[in-house]
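pasting input
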Amino acid sequence: MKLTHADTHSFAQIDQLLGDYFPLNEEGIETNNIAVGSSKVRVRNLEGKFDEIRERYEGFLVEDDDGFVPDFIVESTRHPSLDLSEFPNITVVSDPENNKHYAFRWDFVARIDVANSRAELLMAPVAHPLSIDTIVRIATSFAAIDNGGFLMHSSCINRDGDAFMFCGVSGSGKSTMARLSQERYQVFTDEMTLIEKQGDGYVAWGTPFWGDMQMSVHESAPLKGIFYLAKSKDNRIEELPRSVRVKEMMRVIMCFGQEKVLAEKLLQQAIDFVSVVPFNRLHFKPEISVWDVINEKF
Amino acid sequence: MNPDVVFREVDGEGLLMEPTSRSLHILNDSGLSFWKMIEDGMTVSALVDAALEVYEVERQQLESDVSDFLDKMVKLHLIKLLPE
């Protein structure tokens, strides 16, 4: 069975395809519970070969099934003949009326039902078990926003109990910052950080969402500062007006939804966040000495 | 006005976010006052009249500034111009 770009807007057809598989029958299902901070995602798999990738979520898996109250549920299984070769990159089509999003990629078709906090993932035969990670990220991002926080494209460093985040668009240097910091400090993540509100401030968590360094730590620390990276010839911290901080923040928050209610919530949370946590632009050259400028100020 | 656009005011600047693209646009103080007039459903010529009272510039200059501003907002899908 082959899906083409023309099919992506025929929601009824996609619903019918997914309806043959979801919700999954109970028989033969493996359940895995993934917690990043207080954002909880349950993954229910049928022939998804999750066992092969469990290692990746080590430290984030919760064995106690009964005590785990998921914010989001992801179900996945395999289709015997699904051909998605027309989608080398991810294509997302939204059905705003029903608050659902459909994602198509060479290895899967997924339906994300925001109102019911569910996602269903139908893998093509060519899919790697890790295909599910994309949907687990999306599920975690919704859970985080629900909990008043964010999942962000950002590396995160633990400087002796104080967390600092380094964010930016792809190629801006967030993993470079993580790599050069590791000789002095603990790296929570080089790719994705989860932010949660705690008391009057925020804490930053490492996540299981790997970057180049292929590492992750399920630990958190109070967030002392966040830097938007700009590669430069010298190291310098530039203060930004609140409006620009919100704008830069929006570029690096992971959020799949397109609904107005969600956008309002997200924007307000971002304004609240940049009003509390120092958010500056960091012009940096990739050397450990960049920390001298940071440590001097914070 | 695009009814889906989310608006917030922060430190005298306006933040406009269009939910589909989730890109954020910043309005400076004059942009912000224009936006508020648009929110009130003001016509383009009324907008120019109101701005003339605030800014000491030629009407012609202001007309072209306002029209540039509106064009930009239309291109970003933040507003739609209706026949007056």
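fyi DSSP finds six helices and 16 strands in chain A.
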